[in-house]
Design a protein that fits this description.
two-stranded antiparallel ribbon, 10 helices, 33% helix
Length: 254
């Protein structure tokens, strides 16, 4: 089966911890405003593996952020390439709002078994979460069995669809003399990404949720935030720059 083409927020929201500190300096406890949960699910640390072993979290709740994928760090004002792979609790539908956040009741559905980052985060005092951010994060290989038959597909995907050159290719789009070649290279990557996903989905009958864990977000979804449109045609995909997107805007968003 072809990987499902789905609509999703293309980059993580800017989760600058300083932006969480409220104007009320006297605040000393959570008022359940939901801001932290609406900003996105937490990254998972080694301490969180127990939540998976006890099924408080399942693979369907997670999305893999691959090395080189554009993400926001706590200090960043624009997306930067992830320096290593890590796992996050996925968002809801088209949003990054944490999957377990009950917006109507401003509550966490797994509060008693919430991940490390959630237990450390205090919007009035961010020292603890800042100390843990980016450290001891887990990846797919920390929880996939070493004899799992999906591993050769993951290796093939990582080798053929590496995101480590993504930043270079996006930069090339801003130069007239390299733009068309960059689009061709990105088109080849998108089609390879989709072909490997299709092969794995046909073999293992993955749901979309499991596909997002095993292979991360499709490349065409990542490219959308940079004004690169994807069209399906003749059994594959072609890419083009959005007509409203200028080179100056591309630079600004990178």
């Amino acid at each position: 089966m072809m990987p499902m083409l789905f609509s999703a927020s293309t980059a993580e929201p800017n989760f600058n911890f300083g932006h969480l500190v409220t104007g009320n300096n006297a605040k000393k406890e959570c008022t359940r405003c939901g801001t932290c949960c609406l900003k996105g699910g937490p990254a998972l640390h080694y301490e969180d593996r127990v939540l998976l072993s006890k099924n408080f979290l399942t693979l369907e709740h997670l999305v893999t952020i691959r090395k080189g994928e554009p993400v926001f760090s706590p200090e960043a004002e624009a997306p930067e390439p992830a320096t290593s792979e890590f796992l996050k609790i996925k968002g809801k539908g088209n949003e990054w709002s944490c999957f377990f956040f009950d917006k109507e009741n401003a509550a966490c559905a797994i509060y008693s078994h919430r991940p490390l980052e959630c237990s450390l985060l205090k919007c009035w005092e961010t020292a603890d979460i800042e100390k843990a951010a980016g450290r001891n994060l887990i990846s797919r290989h920390d929880i996939i069995a070493p004899n799992d038959p999906v591993l050769p597909f993951i290796k093939e995907h990582d080798d053929a669809c590496s995101l480590q050159n993504l930043d270079r290719l996006l930069s090339a789009l801003n130069r007239e003399n390299s733009r068309q070649q960059a689009l061709r290279d990105l088109t080849a990557l998108v089609n390879t990404d989709m072909a490997i996903r299709a092969h794995a989905c046909a073999r293992f009958h993955f749901s979309l949720e499991l596909e997002l864990f095993f292979f991360g977000r499709p490349l065409f979804v990542l490219l959308d935030q940079f004004g690169i449109e994807t069209r399906q045609e003749n059994g594959g995909c072609s890419l083009s720059l959005a007509s409203s997107m200028t080179s100056a805007k591309l630079v600004k968003r990178m």
